Amino acid sequence: MAEPKVKYDRQLRIWGEKGQAALEKASICLLNCGPTGSETLKNLVLGGVGSITVVDGSKVEVGDLGNNFIVDESSVGQSKAECVCAFLQELNDAVKAKFIEEHPEELIETNPSFFSQFTLVIATQLVEDSMVKLDRICREGNIILIFARSYGLMGLVRICVKEHTVIESKPDHFLDDLRLNDAWPELRRFAETIDLNTTDAVVHKHTPYIIILVKMAEEWANTHGGKLPSTREEKKQFKDLIKSKMITMDEENYKEAMEASYKVFSPQGIGPNLQKIIDDSCTEVDSNSSDYWVMVAALKEFIANEGGGETPLEGSIPDMTSSTELYVNLQKTYQAKAEADFLVMEQRVKNLLKKISRDPASISKANIQSFCRNARKLAVCRYRLVEDEYNSPVQPELQKYLTDEDYGTLQEANTLKVLPEKELLHTPFFMAVLLRVFIFFFEQLTGLLQTITNFLDNLMVRWMRIYPG
């Protein structure tokens, strides 16, 4: 068997060892192993989850062969849960796998405590009534629940959980935490040791762009009443100021400085998403608060005091044109500031834990360090009850979506964009509405057909009793 670090090498590069460890501890339950559920669980098994339990009371039918690659002709008539479970076990023998041959709807109705053993439940193709009941069960047990339904090329996925807190959110685009427009004393002192007017061409073209921008920002502020460039014209003038310091046109470090000049113009302080999190009522911590909210409470105190309106420094710098000596010293300057901020945060976390009568060492140093590195990118996700969504839709929101063709786009971006009517009909919102309508009529029709079938079966039984011959 391959070592985990070798076996899962590629995914480790994406979510790191901490993410992989969480995956390997996960216990997952799949309800209904049709094509949607089987494909979902297959991907998780290949990723190295801890254990899986497949729940399905149906048998493999001929129709399954055309949409579920996990079963074949030899599986027809056999337990679908058993066939899928055996196949998935072969894909990754490090994953513990078992199956239960029972219809999920019956399990939800008769044995709700069954789900308490799992960290995640994936329920596919459930009817609305069962979805509502399972959502309540999983919320009471703080179990993450994901609903998935698919019909041909259309489908929906619904996450159900009271609250999901994220430290390592890994956003696609985020500015480096360089503090170019608010340099701390040690960074300023380091910048002061470097002369941009040096006549040494080698030194001049190997000065890191961070230093160039720090010094240029300070020079600009000194001649503009302490303010940094804000208008389009001022930003252009700032770039021209950087360009004027070039000795030759092949100085890559100065080109990097001009390209990264927008980092000087970025607003100071924390963003609106983080502000919303630190203003949350959960920052009023008590003995029942999660580690996440204890650290957020400590972060709130740090920002208001030692941070001066900023989060702890992340402590990393990007690659750039520089001499090795200058780059290493610059890196050490950032790392030292990050370490100092971490120590302050660590002490604040310990003080809060002590205040709420919890062990001051109950939140590990590694977790606090990870929190500090990702403090600007924290996220909190909360989801409505499925029952509320079905029975108490937010009428004003629905009306805006249905009457204002720009509204759906404005929810995704801060810019106005007018969608043509034919494009509007293909937006996720309208597709979701159409799918919900289809599901409603499908369930009603299925119920009607079942009623007719039962009636005909009963009629046939009576007929046979009256006319046995």
Major sheet summary line: 6 strands, mixed
Find the count of extended strands (DSSP E, 2+ residues).
Answer: 8
Q: In percent, how helical is the residue content?
A: 40-55%
Supply Rg.
30 Å
**Tally of helical segments:** 21
Residue-averaged pLDDT, rounded?
Answer: 86
User: Span from first to last CA?
Assistant: 65 Å
The structure class reads alpha/beta
What is the molecular shape? Answer: elongated
Strand content: 5-15%
Uncertain regions spanning at least 5 consecutive residues: 409-426
Walk across the major sheet and give the strand order: 3-2-1-4-5-6
What order do the helices and strands follow? HHEHEHEHEHEEEHHHHHHHHHHEHHHHH
Oligomer: single chain
Explain what this protein looks like in three dimensions.
- With 469 residues, the chain is α/β, with parallel strands linked by helices.
- It has 21 helices and 8 strands.
- It has helices at 4-7, 9-25, 35-47, 80-91, 104-110, 128-140, 185-192, 201-204, 209-223, 232-244, 252-259, 262-265, 272-278, 291-304, 324-355, 365-373, 386-391, 395-403, 407-412, 421-424, 428-466, and strands spanning 27-31, 51-55, 96-100, 120-124, 144-151, 154-160, 164-166, 379-381.
- It has a 6-stranded mixed beta sheet with strand order 3-2-1-4-5-6, sandwiched between helices. It has a two-stranded antiparallel ribbon with strand order 7-8.
- Helix 3 links the parallel strand 1 (27-31) and strand 2.
- Helix 9 packs across helix 11 (252-259).
- It is elongated and about 110 Å long.
- The relative contact order is 0.08.
